[in-house]
Amino acid sequence: MAAPKVERFSSALIPLPAENVDTDQIVPARYLKVVVKPGLADALFHDWRFNEDGSKKTPPFVLDDPRFAGRGILIAGDNFGTGSSREHAPWALDAFGIKAIISTSFADIFKNNALKNGILPIVVDAALHAQLMEAARSGDAAQASVDLASATLTTPSGTAVKFAIDPFAQKMLLAGLDELDFVRSKSADIEAHERAHPGTVNTKAPQAAK
User: How far apart are CA 112 and CA 119, in angstroms?
Assistant: First the structure.
């Protein structure tokens, strides 16, 4: 399967002001045996969205609120994605249609997993975060835009802000490659290097012990 390719996209915002959201809240541990990514959409924030009988909670969790239906950019509280490492967290976010998460900080492991699965973790300062959260919570349908090539977030008010991203991750997402794809793309260079630097082989037979 090809790696996700990311270039530019636009969406209104989904507000999730909770801080220190951990990966067990994003995807409860009982869903870690699921291996089909599309099947994880309902697992996303499952215990926050559903009652024990499988019905959706009333009032609905923000992801199920009709005001925010179809949106693909989540604005979350500080330190998003803390806790154990599990790729199911970005898998579930992707299955639900989330393309980017804006926060003031992310757990490192989650951040790396998100980038490998085509989801952009975008860090902004506290002042801008507060403005975006206020706009999202109001239900404002004005859209934010993300341009990965220039690493630019354009807010609903039209302000363009640069965000930091690992250059290698940026390159892979723009090209739609993962690490294995990248190595394969360099196979000709690797073979040329090996031909120019042949390994040393000892052709002498080992001497019998005296």
Answer: 10
Q: Is residue 192 part of a domain?
A: no
Residue 123 CB: number of other CB atoms within 10 A? Answer: 16
CATH number of the domain at 97, please: 3.20.19.10
Adjacent-strand bridge partners of 161:
153
Tokens of 31: 């869903």
Note whether 16 and 75 are within 8 A (CB).
Answer: yes
Determine the Cα–Cα distance for residues 68 and 90; give it in Å rounded to an integer.
Answer: 20
- Model confidence at 1, in pLDDT bands (50, 70, 90)? very low
Give the pLDDT of residue 79: 98
Instruction: Tell me whether strands 13-16 and 73-76 are parallel, antiparallel or unpaired.
Output: parallel
Phi, psi of 69 (to 5 degrees): -60, 140
Domain that holds residue 140: 8-177
Q: Domain for residue 70, yes or no? A: yes
182 in a domain, yes or no? no
Between CA 39 and CA 42 the distance in angstroms is 7
How many domains does the chain divide into?
1
Q: Which amino acid is at 184?
A: R
Q: pLDDT tens for residues 145-194?
A: 999 999 999 999 999 999 999 999 999 999 998 766 555 555 566 566 66
Establish if 190 belongs to a structural domain: no
